[in-house]
Amino acid sequence: MDATITAKGQTTIPKAIREQLGLKTGDKVRFFIGSDGRVALLPVIPISRIKGSLSTGRPPVTIEEMNEAIGAEAAGEPRS
After folding, report:
1. Which of 27, 59, 62 is nearest to 43 (CA)?
2. Of the candidates 29, 36, 62, 73, which lies 20 to 30 Å from 3 by C-alpha distance?
3. Cα separation, 1 vs 36, whole angstroms
4. Residue 23 confidence (pLDDT)
């Protein structure tokens, strides 16, 4: 797919690319330049969109439980 750069340095992302990346009006994108000179464009995903997507199905862990687990790991105790 081709796109033209305007005098202001702007271009339109082709529709097929916008659809593939799920981009909508107002979304932000980030550009990455690889060591081989290739450029990648990825959507910037707000944390609010992914909140809860890594659900473990277990209740949240308390601070006390976290501290106990850290202490146990530091002491070399086996995990439960």
Report:
1. 27
2. 36
3. 21
4. 93
Q: Token pair for residue 76?
A: 């070399």
Which helix or strand (DSSP H or E) is residue 61 part of?
none
Contact (CB, 8 A) for 17 and 42: no
Amino acid making up residue 55: S
Tell me the two tokens of residue 14: 């082709």
Asked whether the CA dihedral 3, 15, 1, 28 is positive or negative, the reply is positive
Asked if residue 31 lies in contact with residue 41, where contact means CB atoms within 8 angstroms, the answer is: yes
Nearest of 9, 7, 49 to residue 28 by alpha carbon: 49
Per-residue pLDDT tens over the stretch 42-76: 999 877 777 777 777 788 889 999 999 999 888 88
